Amino acid sequence: MLLLEAQLSESGRPILQPGEIECQLIDSTDIDLEQETKPPYWNPLLGGIVSLTTHRIIWIERTRKKEPVQSRAFAIPHPAVHALEPPKKGGLKSLFGKQAVKLRIVVGIRKDGALATRDAASAVRVVMVFRNLDSNSDAFVTRFQEVLEAKAWTVIPPTSALPGRAHPGSEPSFSGRQDGSQPSRAFTTAHAGVSGILKREEAQAKQADETLQEAFGDLNALMSKAKDMVALAERIRMRLAGSSGGTGGGTDEGEGSRQEMQDLLLSVGIASPVTRENAGALYHQQLSRQLSDFVGPLLVKSNGMMALVDVYCFFNRARGTELISPDDLLQACRLWERVNAPVRLRRFESGVLIVQARGHSDEAIFAQLAQLVKTPDGTHFGISASDAARALGLPPALAKEELLAAEYRGLLCRDDGADGLRFYHNFFLELDSLQEAAAGQQQ
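The chain above was modelled as a monomer; its predicted structure follows.
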């Protein structure tokens, strides 16, 4: 295969490289080669979704609903692109209605037939055919040309230049030159010894404080300092990881604060959020896939389920200024069944909406509740939503919904008294089984 294979997430979204941002999406696109340069092993790629990023152009195969086979994806890195030949406008064919638009991409190849990002032996023309006549192919071609001129793939991401563990005497990545190298300075006795290390640490803290104050001064400064803020957050995270690994013990309060800080720094947001501008008609479908990828790790920490309201808050916080409406979120969740996502939207009998993993089993939760109500305290006093929440590791509101679901299945029975709503083991099921056994013995 001439094109490079691209990795996809579990929901079918392309996994972006460090510093890579998705710019444009277009549907119903074929990729083929010019007839005179087509090798015998080449198979055309038909009817896929094309994702234009700052580093690559990715073709994603569209699979049918409920199809278990994982979608394929192939990419052309931008360094391999030599030129673009925009579609020809006008002509005799345009008089008979709209025609499929063809974009020719001249890419370099090596002697063995693989794509060449440098020192290409020859070149071939990759033909991209836009079958969707309603799509804005002109805007896509214009955006493609702008991306090639920007050459964002030549910029080294700030996190890639950071060391695995920060050295006490190292300088922040944003204090050096644009190419990442540090300015040379003459050695003096003031920079030597413990006092020199303390002075450098003090200078780093002062510069980090100035960066924070300048970044949060106004929105424009924040956007211009975005890379510096990401580098600073990554550096703090690495220091926390290094300190936790180097120390053998610590107080529970200190460990909790360190874990909370790591969680905050790790949730720096979505680098390339899906928007109406870059997705167009595919907005809700791609938003559904991105939401599925985002909520997966959260469900692992939340024992397999989260309230839809909490998902909305977390997702919008991660998107930064690209906020979505509740209607867009609900529509994206309802598309999970169509895109065969690993998560699903569920509605309890009370009308509460939650998000849970597709492999989540209510039977396991019901088994835990059955054991809880059979304990001595559960037998005498019953269990409340708070008791179930502590046992299941869920919020009290969701634990109450699980109790009501178990009651609906006949596993529990309720007592709504002065102490509030409490649930007990349903002994009536055992009485029914005893009566059936007695009737069988009499016969």
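Residues 159-184 have pLDDT under 50 and may be disordered.
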